Each structure stands twice: as structure tokens, then as C-alpha cells.
Amino acid sequence: MTLLVTGGAGFIGANFVLDWLAASDETVINLDKLTYAGNPETLASLQGDARHQLVQGDIGDAALVSRLLAEHRPRAVINFAAESHVDRSIHGPGEFIETNIVGTFRLLEAVRGYWADLPEADKTAFRFLHVSTDEVYGSLAKDDPAFAETHRYEPNSPYSASKAASDHLVRAWHHTYGLPVLTTNCSNNYGPYHFPEKLIPLMIVNALAGKPLPVYGDGMQVRDWLYVKDHCSAIRTVLAGGRLGETYNVGGWNEKPNIEIVQTVCKLLDELRPKAGGSYASQITYVTDRPGHDRRYAIDARKLEAELGWKPAETFETGIRKTVEWYLANPDWVAHVQSGAYREWVQKQYSAS
Ligand code: NAD
Ligand code: TYD
């Protein structure tokens, strides 16, 4: 048995592949374009492992995808591949449209062609699992109930709009062509191998480097944080038992304002890597807010729990400690991803603040 995973050299995809192969002998074909966010070093422990094959390529390359499907005959495709950073989508939305919308469309078409010709039993068992985000639902006011699967789509950033479009395509390929799809909409993830342009790893890396910790606006925007390995376990659960054509919201019941996240990271660093002259919190710097910044996300994950029995294993307290410890233990991984391209991004995003 084989899985085709796309975007499996990125943050969540790579965690998924590593966790999958730690528990299963099912082969993973990993199709990843290796953009700035894709990092084969994350998968270094799988070198020489016959159960894993990393293929550099684009989900929008229909010929390549069709060839991989014909050659490896996967029983499922799990689509992590995406442009994923809201701030980058504000500076340059084109790539988001290309990969998240056009790429997903081409991938769906290639998969549909493959699936249509499968023998009946394989056709019935086949799954296309699309990994998406809670950001498609837009922004909540302070006392609004958390996003349920029935919440209307109200995306506000080029990133979330492109993911919303991809979700609609996946839904339509099920309703129109019968493709056996599943969609997960997850809250903000954190954990090992997170590219240090996202809030939590950026704060850890900047704190240790003695740099400012840039908090957008008043720092009171709320996100609902989930440890990445809990997201991976939710995906495995939905893949195994999700009802066809359904969407499942995934979240950790951990709503926190950004400033509290940054203060928690500082406290953990104060404990684990104390610096002379006081707390890392003195590096916190308020900077100009992100345009169109969503105020609050919160996920209602009761459907996934009630139907499939999934629950996160980590609380925020245990997950964030593991995350900070991981970054302290892996300075080489961090140093290698902070390449020229990373430095250019930091210069572009934070120079005016
Ligand atoms: P990431 O940016 O770390 O990784 C994305 C991966 O996709 C990279 O390895 C990149 O090289 C690859 N990729 C980009 N364009 C590609 C293309 N055209 N063809 C093939 N590969 C391509 O993102 P992530 O944080 O790991 O997110 C993975 C998925 O989960 C995304 O679809 C994202 O929308 C979704 N998601 C992320 C979060 C989060 O908090 N990070 C939360 C919910 C959902
Ligand atoms: P991010 O990690 O980019 O995820 P998303 O925008 O997809 O939720 O940002 C998480 C929150 O942290 C978001 O409200 C923006 C904020 N943020 C900062 O305050 N400073 C920063 O330098 C970054 C990258 C994010």
C-alpha cells in the first residue's frame, strides 16, 4: 500500500510523513516543489529508507502527477502542498493563486483520471484528503461561538481566499464527479520544523539572537493553537474513518492572544536558556499591524471528536515546552533554513517597522 503526500517537505507535511513512517510500513511518495518552505533536511532521518521517496515537482504538473499515480498506484492522496504564509500573500498573491487554486485544480484532475480507471474495490477504498485551514471562515468577534463546519466562508486575506477556493474545488469534484474526498480545516499549528517566519519559531529564533520580537498592532489578536503532531493524528483519523465529502474542523481548544504566546515563549527561554541582564521579554517590540489582520480564530472540533473519537494529546503548556526545547536542541536545522532567501524576506517584512 502507498500514499501520495504532496508538500511533505514543509512544516506539517514533513511532521506527518515522519509520524506516519514511525508507525507504519506503508510507502510514502512525497511530491514537493521544494519552495523556500520545503526542506529535505527535515526528512534526513529517512535517507536510505525504501519506504520514502521524495520527488521534486509541482502539484500543478499534471503529467508528472499522472505518471506518479500510474507508477505507484496509491490508495490515497493527502494534499498539504500550498503557499501558506499570510504576510507573503499580502506582498505577492500570485503564487498563492497559482499553487493553492490552479495547482489544486490540476491535482484534482490528475487524481480523477487515475481514480476513474481503478478496479471497483480500489476505487471504493480510494481517498483524496485535502488539508485546509480555519482561516477560510474569516474573523470572529470576541464573544462569537467558535467556527463549526457549518460556518460560512468569509476569507479575508489572499492566502485564506486561495485556500477557500481550493476547498470549494475539492467539494465540487466530489459532488460532480464522485471523487471520494475529505477536507480538514485546522487552526494554527506549532511544533518542530516550523519555518521561522511564522510567529512562534520567529520569536524563539529572534529572542536567542538578541533581536526584537515584533508583535503586530496591539498583540491582542487571538489564534487557536494546536501542536503539529495532534494535527497529524487528526489527519490519520479522518483518513481512516471520515465520511466521504465531509469536512472536519481540527483544533486544540487553546485560544490565546499573540502577546501571551510571545510572553510564554520568553518565560520558557528565561528558564531553559537564561540570558545575562534579564528577561527575553525586554526584546518585545510593537510594530505596524498587518493589513486586514483577522482579529480572532477559534475552532469548534466537536464533530471530529463525536464522530471519530479524536482528541489532542497535548495541552498548549506541554506542546509549547516541547517546541522551545526542540528549537534549543536543533540550532543546525535553524541555521540552515536561515538562508539568503530567508534573510531577504525578513528585510522586506520588518525593515519599515
Ligand atoms: P509550509 O509552507 O511549511 O509547507 C508547504 C510545502 O508545500 C512546502 O514544502 C513547499 O515546498 C510545498 N509546495 C508549495 N507549493 C507547491 C507546489 N506547487 N507543488 C508541490 N509542493 C509545493 O506549510 P505548512 O504550514 O506545512 O502547511 C501545510 C498545509 O496545511 C497547507 O495547505 C496549509 O494551508 C495548511 N494549514 C496550515 C496551518 C499552519 O498553522 N501552518 C494550519 C492549518 C492548515
Ligand atoms: P502567523 O504565524 O503568520 O499565522 P496566521 O497569520 O496564519 O495566523 O501569525 C500568527 C499571529 O501572529 C497572527 O495574528 C499575526 C501575528 N504575528 C505577529 O504579531 N508578529 C510576527 O512577526 C508574525 C510573523 C505574526
Brief description of this entry?
With about 350 residues, the protein is of the alpha/beta class.
Describe this structure in words.
By secondary structure, the protein is of the alpha/beta class. It has a domain at 2-189 and 227-253 and 293-313: Rossmann fold (3-Layer(aba) Sandwich). It contains 13 helices and 12 strands. It has helices spanning 11-23, 62-72, 86-91, 94-116, 120-125, 158-177, 199-208, 228-241, 258-272, 302-308, 316-329, 331-337, 340-350, and strands at residues 2-6, 27-32, 52-56, 76-79, 127-133, 181-186, 188-190, 213-216, 222-227, 247-250, 255-257, 284-287. Strands 3-2-1-4-5-6-10 form a 7-stranded parallel β-sheet, with helices on both faces. Strands 7-9-11 form a 3-stranded mixed β-sheet. Helix 2 runs parallel beside helix 4, helix 7 (199-208) packs parallel to helix 9 and helix 9 (258-272) crosses helix 11. The protein is globular. The termini are far apart. 45% of the residues are buried. The mean pLDDT is 96. The protein binds nicotinamide-adenine-dinucleotide and thymidine-5'-diphosphate. Thymidine-5'-diphosphate binds next to helix 7 and strand 8.
What is this structure's SSE topology?
Elements: E1 2-6, H1 11-23, E2 27-32, E3 52-56, H2 62-72, E4 76-79, H3 86-91, H4 94-116, H5 120-125, E5 127-133, H6 158-177, E6 181-186, E7 188-190, H7 199-208, E8 213-216, E9 222-227, H8 228-241, E10 247-250, E11 255-257, H9 258-272, E12 284-287, H10 302-308, H11 316-329, H12 331-337, H13 340-350
Parallel strand pairs: 1-2, 1-4, 2-3, 4-5, 5-6, 6-10, 7-9, 8-12
Antiparallel strand pairs: 9-11
Helix pairs in contact: 1-8, 2-4, 4-6, 7-9, 9-11
Bound molecules: nicotinamide-adenine-dinucleotide and thymidine-5'-diphosphate.
